[in-house]
Structures are given as structure tokens and as C-alpha cells.
């Protein structure tokens, strides 16, 4: 996670420079057409930008997407023809809000320059408010893994049911000290990892062993469960484990190769560290493009459009770890 570092020394810059050079060389050998992409070109300027302008914390893609998603959610009546304009207005409103609550002066209706009260200014320095405004919290914010996107009924009420599945019941007995005669649970379709990443069902996760934090493993997030007994309650997730295969060097560099197994494991939610970027072995699996029809809404009307999608073979369970993703700092052996 070097690009998220606040301070750099010469060694850090040298490491980033070597990683980018290795990435571009790999593209040149394995996928030359990607060299013409804008991101590939911009990556060659990262080291120069750090030396000239300082850390890239404010320009990381994850930070932008976090704020961009919130703004997109605010524009619920967008006309689909002025996205840039509407997004710019939302950015301006967010900047004005930051200026006002932090104590900046503004002109009121009486023509006087005033500022927010001391109570508002104190509120603006809280980590919750800073996080909402996408401001840096100087590392003081404590991130906590949690289950999100609960299963809900048609009237949007959370579905609570008795634990009847033997696997879930056995997992509840492992993580509980009580012998409850009746366990109830709520299912969740996504998990917020320890580092703040959001992982939906079917996406890969990087986990740690609950008995030995030095041991790590990779799994596919299946579902989460909030289980409650007579006195205790806890959150667990069900992951489908990957098998680590020998390194593959056919692409000119050692690539971490994984195979999705049929083994499942229940772990506590706090042991889910982050999401992972895995690439399917489409060459071996014979994956291909296919055309489909999708219904979209344009100008308050539904219309059918043809789209080309990439169809992954469900029979091939081989994946590669994307080691060139800057926000991914994992060690798998």
C-alpha cells in the first residue's frame, strides 16, 4: 500500500519505481496493447509526481471512487445527458460544506460575514465527519470488520430465522461458550473487511488464521451470518477456500496460481482482512465473448440494448493473483 503512504523516503520511492518498471515490462511481454492505455502511461509518472508534489494519498483511485459513489447516489434524478455537470455541482456543494463546518466565513442574508458556532466546528474534527467528507483522519480512525447488506423481506424488514443448517449450527457451537437450545440468525450478502474494503458475495477475500495471525489464506466469500443465542451474539462468514498451486512462470514472471476447491470454512468476521484481485485463467478454460440483450433506463424509458460480455467457463477453477495491483499488499506462499 505504498501509494497510500503519507511520508516517503528514498528506499520507498526506489521500491515503487522498481515495481512500476516490472509492471510495464510484464505488459510489454504479455499484453502489449495495454501499454497504449492512459493508466499504463500515467503509472510511469508516479515517481516523478511523488518527488515533485509529495504523496499521492489524495489522488488514489480508491479514494476517488469512494467519494464518486456517494455523489452518484445523490443524483437520483439525473437526465443521463449532463453527468459531468451534475457531478461537478455535487463536488462544489461538498467543498462549501467542508468550508462552512470547519469555521470558514460566509456571507449571510443580512450581508454580514459570519462563521459556524464552536459546537459545529468541534463536530467537524470528528473522524466520522471527516470520513464522510473523504478527508484524511491521520490514521486515528479504527476500522472494524462487519457484515452488511442483510437479507430482508419484501417490506424491507430484516429476516430473522432459526438456525437449522447443521454446518452453521456446528460453527455456532465452536465460537460460543453457551449451549443454547435455540439459535437465531440473520444472513448477510456482503462484508466490510478489516481494512475497509467492501466484498460482495462471490468475490475473493484475504483472511488470517484465528489462532495464528501469521498464517494467511485465500477464500471466496459465500455468505455472512449474525448469530444470536440466549446470552451471546457473534458474526461469522462462510468462505470457499483456494488451493495454492506451484508458481507459474509461463508469462515471464513468477505468478501466484490458485485453484478453487470444494472445501468451505467458517471464520469470525474480524479475520477477513481485505479483498483480492484474482484473474481467471481464460486461456486454459476456453472463455469467450457472447452477445446478450440488457434492459436499461434512458430518459425515464426502458429500452433493450445489445452488449458483449465475457463468459467465463464454470468448469475451470484456476485463477492468478494480480500482483501488480498497487492497493494490494499480500504475501501468499
Uncertain runs: none
Biggest sheet character: 11 strands, antiparallel
Strand content: 25-35%
Structural class: alpha+beta
User: Radius of gyration over alpha carbons?
Assistant: 24 Å
Second rung of CATH, namely the architecture of the largest domain: Roll
Total separate domains: 2
Number of DSSP E strands? 15
Number of helices: 9
SSE string, helix = H, strand = E?
Answer: HHHHHEEHHEEHEEEEEEEEHEEE
Distance between the termini: 19 Å
CATH overall fold name of the largest domain: SH3 type barrels
Short description:
This protein has helices at 10-30, 38-43, 46-53, 61-74, 83-101, 118-124, 127-132, 166-175, 282-285, and strands at residues 106-107, 113-114, 146-150, 161-162, 184-192, 198-200, 204-208, 216-228, 233-248, 255-268, 272-275, 278-280, 288-298, 301-311, 318-321. It has 333 residues and is α+β, with helices and mostly antiparallel strands.
How does this model look, in words?
- It is built from nine helices and 15 strands.
- It has helices at residues 10-30, 38-43, 46-53, 61-74, 83-101, 118-124, 127-132, 166-175, 282-285; strands spanning 106-107, 113-114, 146-150, 161-162, 184-192, 198-200, 204-208, 216-228, 233-248, 255-268, 272-275, 278-280, 288-298, 301-311, 318-321.
Amino acid at each position: 500500500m505504498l501509494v497510500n503512504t503519507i511520508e516517503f523516503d528514498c528506499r520507498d520511492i526506489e521500491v515503487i519505481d522498481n515495481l512500476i518498471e516490472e509492471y510495464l515490462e510484464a505488459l510489454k511481454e504479455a499484453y502489449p496493447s495495454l501499454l497504449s492505455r492512459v493508466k499504463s502511461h500515467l503509472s510511469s509518472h508516479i515517481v516523478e509526481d511523488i518527488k515533485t508534489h509529495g504523496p499521492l494519498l489524495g489522488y488514489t483511485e480508491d479514494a476517488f471512487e469512494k467519494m464518486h459513489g456517494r455523489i452518484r447516489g445523490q443524483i437520483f434524478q439525473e437526465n443521463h445527458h449532463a453527468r459531468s455537470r451534475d457531478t461537478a455541482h455535487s463536488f462544489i456543494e461538498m467543498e462549501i460544506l467542508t468550508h462552512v463546518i470547519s469555521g470558514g466565513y460566509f456571507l449571510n442574508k443580512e450581508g454580514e460575514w459570519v462563521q459556524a458556532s464552536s459546537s459545529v466546528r468541534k463536530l467537524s474534527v470528528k473522524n466520522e465527519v471527516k470520513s464522510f467528507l473523504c478527508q484524511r483522519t491521520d490514521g486515528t480512525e479504527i476500522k472494524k470488520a462487519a457484515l452488511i447488506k442483510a437479507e430482508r423481506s419484501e417490506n424491507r424488514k430484516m429476516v430473522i430465522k432459526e438456525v437449522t443448517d447443521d454446518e452453521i449450527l456446528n460453527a455456532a457451537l465452536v465460537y460460543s461458550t453457551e449451549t443454547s437450545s435455540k439459535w437465531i440468525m440473520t444472513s448477510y450478502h456482503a462484508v466490510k473487511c478489516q481494512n475497509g474494503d467492501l466484498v460482495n458475495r462471490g468475490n475473493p477475500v484475504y483472511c488470517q488464521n484465528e489462532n495464528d495471525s501469521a498464517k494467511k489464506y485465500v477464500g471466496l466469500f459465500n455468505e455472512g451470518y449474525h448469530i444470536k443465542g440466549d446470552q451471546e451474539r457473534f458474526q461469522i462468514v462462510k468462505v470457499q477456500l483456494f488451493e495454492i498451486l506451484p508458481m507459474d512462470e509461463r508469462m515471464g514472471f513468477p505468478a501466484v496460481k490458485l485453484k478453487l476447491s470444494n472445501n468451505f470454512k467458517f471464520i469470525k468476521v474480524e479475520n477477513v482482512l481485505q479483498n483480492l484481485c484474482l484473474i481467471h485463467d481464460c486461456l486454459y478454460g476456453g472463455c469467450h465473448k457472447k452477445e446478450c440483450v440488457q434492459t436499461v433506463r434512458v430518459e425515464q424509458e426502458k429500452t433493450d440494448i445489445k452488449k458483449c460480455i465475457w463468459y467465463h467457463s464454470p468448469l475451470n477453477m484456476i485463477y492468478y493473483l494480480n500482483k501488480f495491483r498497487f492497493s494490494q499488499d499480500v504475501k501468499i506462499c
